[in-house]
Every structure is written in structure tokens, then in C-alpha cells.
Amino acid sequence: MYNVNDISKYILQELKQGNISKDAALNLVKKLNMKDEIAIIGMGCRLKDTEDYEEYWDTIVKENGKVHRCQKSRIDLIRSNMPSSTINEETKFSKGSYMDGLDMFDYSFFGFKKEEADYLPPSLRISLEVVYRALEDAGYLGEQLQNNKMSVFLGNNFTKDTYFSYLKMCLENQFYSIPLEGNLFNITSGLATRIAGCFDLKGMAYMVDASCPSAAVAIHNACTAIKTKQCSTAIAGGMLFDLTPIKRCNMSNWIFLHPDDVITKMFDENPGGGYIGEGMGVLVLKSLKEAIEDGDSIHGIISGMSFNNNGSDGNFTQSCMEDVKTATVNAFKDAQVDVNDIGFLIDEGYPNKMEQGIELSGLIAGFNRFTNKKQFCGLGGIANYGYLQSSIGVFSMMLCSLALKKKIIPPVYHFCTPTDAVNLCRSPFYVSDIPKEWICQEGHSRYAVSHIYGYGGTNMVFVLKEPPAVEKKEKREREQELFILTTKTKKSMLKMIEQYITFLSEEKDVNLLDICYTASTKRMIFREYRLAIAAHDVQDLIGKLKMVLRGELNSEEIVFAEHEVTEKEKNTKIRYTSVSDKTLCEIAAEFGQQKSFLFGELYQDCGAEFCKIPKYIFDRESCWVFKDKNMNQLKFILQNIKAGKSTEQGDNH
User: Fold this and answer.
1) What is the CA radius of gyration of the chain?
2) Distances (CA, A) of 300 to 155, 247, 335
3) Which residues pair with 535 in a beta bridge?
4) Does a structural domain hold residue 392?
5) For residue 625, with 0-12 CB atoms within 10 Å meaning exposed, 13-18 middle and 19 or more buried, which class applies?
6) Best exposed site among 236, 269, 474, 609 by fewest CB in 10 Å?
7) Domain shared by 69 and 116, yes or no
8) Is residue 639 part of a domain?
9) 276-304 as b/e, with b when 16 or more CB fall inside 10 Å?
10) Cα distance between residue 525 and residue 523, in whole Å
11) What is the torsional sign of CA 316, 317, 322, 324?
């Protein structure tokens, strides 16, 4: 087997013999010596009040707090399953960062029937939507998913499910008589495998439970799988949901013991305390070399990582300084980073003074192995959303990537007085209390670090690097472009058209070629509602979209079609065919007649690039198993009477 040196010598020999140009040789050597790094090419998230990572960024930068008393609408979802004494006053609801609308789901979009969707756990529903958002963000939908070997790695803390889960609630509300599918939908490993099934992903798919670092372990495993060629692309991240946000049995009671009127203040003399934060986030990962070659949009780069355990040092709930130091040193070596280029570090955010002191001491010692420089790296956290526990790793890396890309160091929420657990003035760190421009030495890259610790002694450190500069392609002007839009429901179609009109009217730097390329080749193609428009320019497209809303479809350049999908079609994959030598209007007409094309063939050698376009609008409705227990009991009795069975509950022996 040839090594790098042998191949480099061969390239040099070919250059000397004039078989390749100097530029080509230089490009080959650069690729050959490029470090094996992982690109983040897509991101998706769901947190309290947001489904958008840009809004997540704004919350952190503007120091908005999302920790409040749990909303009544969440308690109403579990009211029939909780003793009335635990939920009869709002003061008994937990404080934290709790999502709303756990019952809302666009079940038909993901191929479920309403009666099936009722039994899907909220964690699976939200995971499906967040993964879709990440793939949408990466441009890996539609024809891009053909014959793929994408893998799915997700982390979760399943401990809470051991005494209250959605399956338990379904069983109670159905008097322990639920269909087989109801049980199968709630198999914990199904969180990953159902995503693989829904998107037809052919790589590995499994769940990880590693306490707080669960999402980080999933990302670590995904990076390792890509580096070892087990898969080319991966979806990785994690989640945390607390179905019972009441004081008697919420997750905060396991971790935080304090009054519920304190404020979390990271790296502060008085860190206050913490509250549980719900979250679901994923990254789409790919080899950096391949991402650059394929023209993917890159949010950030995972340059190095390290993963160890305290062993018998420390204790189950407390980290060990030496092992944090070891993990930090190993991550820096793996990244081959100049430590002085690291400008931002997110610690996992456990709001305990002693634990923060231990972790910071280990991190300081790790930095000091490579530099004596003081106060050059800003500390950060995401306490605005509470303690995100098993999902904290993915949100930490998401924030690092956004900070690197935007070249801004975000502030720490509610910071007042520096902790005295360590001497920050004599350390590499400082606490930024306002958003700060991230200035970098010329010729150097910006780097950030994510540190996560978990019960049981797990230490994880990731080194992230800013994305490479992107050169714009030269575009070839064409007379017309074909705009494609498909949805599962008419409601979604009309809302999407309105959203596109707003987007095209308000965005300054929109390019018709890029928009049409992205919409047709990087998004899902559905059978139910299809729109195809041959447009001359952006203004022409806006005008024709408005014509569709008015019902003016008397032009061969506008094709709008509705199709009632049969059961056979639901179980049949869409087959993509070549556009061959057809005109755009011919393609549009056939597309409206349920023919699907490899639209990518329209964009060869024209400089088309993936760009941001409006997101798909889900058509959600409530899916929950009988919130009213009394109504359910009546239904149970009537069903049994109709079946000629006894209506008594319990054993009849």
C-alpha cells in the first residue's frame, strides 16, 4: 500500500516530466496532506420558543432567558395521569426551559396515519422534524438521498423513562390494552432506526445513553465512523425531554437541589443553581475533503476530539482535574492546533461552584501545557436555556460553529462576579459579558473548544475550526430557469408560495439560478401537490407565484397539479428519470403528470450553487392518546360492550 510520501514523490516526478501543471500538482499535494477533519454541513434544532438555530444564536447573544415556570398547556397533556395534588397549583409546576406543542405533529408528511401518530412518543416526532430541518439545511433531500449510506447516531438519557414515559401514559390511558404498533413505536432504539427508515438511510442507526455527554458521544461516534470509511455522511446529535415537568417528579430533582427562585450564573462567585432545559439538535457531518469537493455549505469544522473516563478518580457525580486535563491535551494534539488561536470555550455549564472549579482547573492545566499566554480565550455557556443535559453536547458545538462563522464571541448569561474557585486573571480564560468581535491574527484560523462532562466520569473535549473561505462560482446566464415546489397538503403549498413571495421580495442577493437549483435538487419531491414555473428572472417568478395564488393558471409556463396518492404509491419510492432533451415547459408539464426527473442534469457546468431558501411549512395537528381519562374509560366500556366482553377492570379469576 502506498503512503503519503510515496504519492508526493510520484506527483513531483510527474511535474518534472511535464505530465501535470504546477497548479495541478500543488492542488494534489494540498489535498494529500489535508488533515482528516469533519465538516458540519447542516444543523437542525428545537428548543423552547424556537425551531431555528439562528434564533438560538440570537437568544444567547441578546442574553434572553428561556427559563420560566412550566406552561399550563404542557401540564394539560399529562393531567389525566398525575395525582391532582401535584398539579392543582401553578407553583407546583417546575421551572425550566420547556417546549410547547409536544402533541403537534405533521404525521402524513412522515408517512403515518393519525391513529398511528397518537402512539408516537414526542421524542420521535420532534426528532423526525429536526432531522428533516438539518437535511434541508444541508441540501441533502430529494435526489441527493438516492443510494446513500448515511448513518444516524443519536443520544438520549432514558433514565426518566424507567418511571414515567409516553408508553406508560398510553398504557394507563388505554387500560393496558394498546395495539402492537403502540408498543413498537416506543422502542427506545427506534428513535434512530425510524429516522433511517423514514428517510431511506442505508448506513448505521443506533442510540447512545451516556448521561449528559450522550449527544457528544453520538457526534464522536459519527466522526469516527466517517474517518474509518464506515459511512460517508452522518446525522448526529441528541435530545432531552421531560414529560412530567412538576416538582414532585421532574428531572431537576435528580441533579439540582435549590429553591426555584435562583438564577443560573456560570463562572460566577455565586453560580446560583440550574433548571432542566429541553432540547433536540442534530448536525449533518461529512469528511471536510469531500464537503469541499462537493460544494457543500460548511458551518464549521470538527478538527480534533478526545474522550476518556475518570476511572476510580473523583466520584460518580464529580469530575477529576487530571482527567479533564488529559482529555484537553489529547484533543489539542488530535487537532494539531496552535492553542493561542483558540478564542472561545464552552464549558458544559453544571451550576455547582466546586464542579465548575474542578473542570476549569483541568482545562487551565491542559491549555498551560502548550502556552503561558493569559486571558486570550473567552468562556461561554448556554444557561439561557437551562441545563440541556443529554442534548448539551450538540448545542455546545452548534454555538461554537455559529460563533466561528459569525466571528463573534457571545456573552455569558447573567454573569456578575468572577468565580473564586480558580484565578481567571492568571489563566488563559476571561468571561465575556457582552458580544465581542472575534479578532484573529492574520494568516491564522479561529478555533473554539467544547467541553462536556457527565455523571460516571465521562470527559469529552472537541476542537472546532472556522469554515474555509468560499469562492463564488462564475454563473452562466440563461434565458429561463425552472422553479419546482412540492408539498404534501394544499395548506402547506399555499403557505409556501406566500413565503417564497416574501423571501424573493425582501432578500437582496437572491439568484434565480441558485434558487431553482436548490429547490429542485436539494428538497424532497412529493406527489400530492406540485408546482412548476418557467421563469425569466426573480421578478417574473414573483409575478407568476402571485398568479398561482389568484388561480390564474392559463400559461404553459405555470403548471399546478393535485394528485390523490394511492396506497400502492405510498409504498413505492419515487423513480427519477433523465430530463434528456426536453424543454423546460415540457418538463413542467410531465412533472405535473407525476413524472419525476433528475433535475440536477439541468445544472451541469452553469455555476449553480446551493443556497438558503424558505423552509418547508409543516401542517401539524394534535396527536395524543386520550388526554381525558374519563372519556377514555367510557370509550373502553362501550368498546367492550359492543364486543360482548366484561367491563370490569382487573382480574376476573
Assistant:
1) 27
2) 21, 39, 14
3) 481
4) yes
5) buried
6) 474
7) yes
8) no
9) bbbbbbbbbbbbbeebbeeebbbbbbbbb
10) 6
11) positive
The answer as to whether 629 is a domain residue is: no
Which of these three, 434, 465, 496, is where a domain ends? Answer: 465
Looking at residue 204, what DSSP letter applies?
-
Q: Is residue 630 part of a domain?
A: no
DSSP 638: H
Top pLDDT among 16 and 28 is at: 16
pLDDT band at 647 (very low <50, low <70, confident <90, very high): very low
Digit-coded pLDDT (tens) for 90-140: 888 888 999 999 999 999 999 999 989 999 999 999 999 999 999 999 999
212 and 335 fall within a common domain:
yes
Domain containing 26 equals 4-33
Rounded mean pLDDT, 173-197: 85
φ, ψ dihedrals at 409, nearest 5°: -95, 115
The type of residue at 453 is Y
pLDDT at position 4 is 58
User: For residue 220, is pLDDT > 60?
Assistant: yes
pLDDT range class, residue 569, cuts 50, 70, 90 = confident
Question: How confident is the model over 582-611, as pLDDT tens digits?
Answer: 999 999 999 999 999 999 999 998 999 999
Over residues 380-404, mean pLDDT: 95
SS3 of the chain: helix, strand, coil, percent, to 5? 40, 20, 40
Instruction: Report how far Cα 621 is from the mean position of its chain's Cα atoms.
Output: 22
Closest to 115 (Cα-Cα) out of 624, 601, 523: 624
Closest CA to 433 of 383, 379, 473, 482: 379
Q: Give the Cα separation of 235 and 198 in Å (integer).
A: 13
Half-sphere exposure of 187 toward its Cβ, with a 13 Å CA cutoff?
12
Residue 25 shares a structural domain with residue 68: no
Concatenating the DSSP letter of every residue in 326-345 gives: HHHHHHHHHHT--GGGEEEE
CB 98 within 8 A of CB 50: no
Contact 243, 235 (CB under 8 A): no
Q: Is the pLDDT of residue 377 over 90?
A: yes
